[in-house]
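2024-03-11 09:14:02 INFO queue: dequeued item Choice-of-anchor D domain-containing protein, len=555
2024-03-11 09:14:02 INFO validating residues
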Amino acid sequence: MFRKSLSVVLLGVPFLFGACSDEPDEPVVPTALIIDRKSFDFGDWEVGKPPAEQLFTVRNASPGNVESVSVSVEGSDSFTLTSSTCEKYLAAGMECEVRVGFAPRLGGTHSARLKVGGASSVEQTSLQGTGFAWVEVSSLPSGTRVVAGDGSFTCTQPCRQAVRKAEVTLYAGPEGFPAWSAACASAPRGGCLLRLDASKSAALETWVPLYQWEVRRSRPPVTVAPLANGSIVVLDALSVTSLDSTGQERWSLPLSADWKLAVTSDGHISLLRYNGSVTQYDSDGRVRWTYRPQESLFSKHVVADGMGNTYVLTSKVTSDTAQVLKLFALSRDGVELWSAIVNEAHLTFSSGLGVVGDGSAVYVSGSAYNRTEPPPANPVFVKNFVQKLTPAGVVLWTKEVNYGEVSFAHTGDMSSIIKLVSPPGGLQASWTDPDGKQLWSAQTPTGQGPGVVDTFAFPPNDTTAPRLLLGGHELRPGTDTYGRGWFADMGDRSGLVRGSITYIDSPYNDGAWVSSLAYTSPARQVVVGGGFGSSADSATGFIRLYDPRTLTLER
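2024-03-11 09:14:37 INFO prediction written
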């Protein structure tokens, strides 16, 4: 229904009083701006190159004009708006063009949004592109390789690789101590860190292996001990052998029974036989003297001080129900200087022997049990103990302690180890000062290994502060099968601190383990002896001389 307008004429001019109509106002038609695609991938583009460009078309898909068109790129500075014909006004059905450039600042995947506003809703297109940089390994020593940290490539000779990441870390192999060119920033484990804001060139200038040499043996070493002249003495189940500083055999003597070894400060080698007799050899393998006890003894431990004296701890059965320890000291010429009896209960067993470097004190550790009546009932445990004696064998004090396996340093410090066997292994350890005061007791973090402990040692001379060096093997989860061997510096008087772990893989893929450890002096290289296979069934033994940085380099 429509109504006409009412009007009158005033002074000859019509005047409209008003008009009204039942017709509704026309609806507002929404405007729409459309980009010709919802997404676009620029693909790979080299970092540092002029931008790759792509043209996008914007169309006004609405019946009305759009009065204010705005175009922007958001989300990454690797994408830029390089040109646009999209002015503020865009008539209905008309088109304009936008050009977007992709110039990545770093390698890796980048994304952004092309946004067009001015219509009823904002239209946007997803943008993506991947930046890459060329990484050139310009040189590397013969026999080495360079490996990308993400495993994406390996170079055994100079090479050039496209890397699609913001940064990459290069590592040298085999494991060792690399020196990289100036283009590299330092990274953990001796790596070369490259930030890929442009193509980069790096050189592996020098490389030093973790260990300088390896000698294979038919049996795992029981003891490895360095001499002052740089040679190394090796004791195994079949022989005692001297190796020079390059691992070449100097001499070897066959053995027919269970022996123990100690090296004196003047380079002599004291070998303790199972019956308590001691034979000393010079550094060239010639016999200097032999000491034979006048009574029946069972050998336990042998050590030497910095004065050339040898100390022997034996077990002596005194009756059907009693056993004591006998300790005696031998001069550098094989003369008995003194002896002492250690008797803490009916049955006294030894667990360790130590001597201060200058010979000013001797330490004996052991355990004591009492017999019960009537025999043969099991003995009753009394205590674990440490005893300190003077250079003449007089007891200064005896203290009860709780410990497992024991090792003494040249300072009189003592460390005790209790092995945690279940994978991934670990240990409980304690450290006691020369006066028998416990400085700390700690356990490695649960579930963090580093493995089962097979051996531990202190530096062999009195010019180096005591540090705790441990070695052993891993057990593969859920089995008794050996995995890798390992060794590490595990702290000092200040506490149990797990250092860098060095792992040893078997070339036979049958596991490995570390049976003996020693520091050389004064270079502090690490002599490592062990076996491939397991301690119960070793396929072969080995000896390696490791660079001293092995204990400190993060890997």
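2024-03-11 09:14:37 INFO annotate: Residues 211-256+415-555 form one domain.
2024-03-11 09:14:38 INFO item closed
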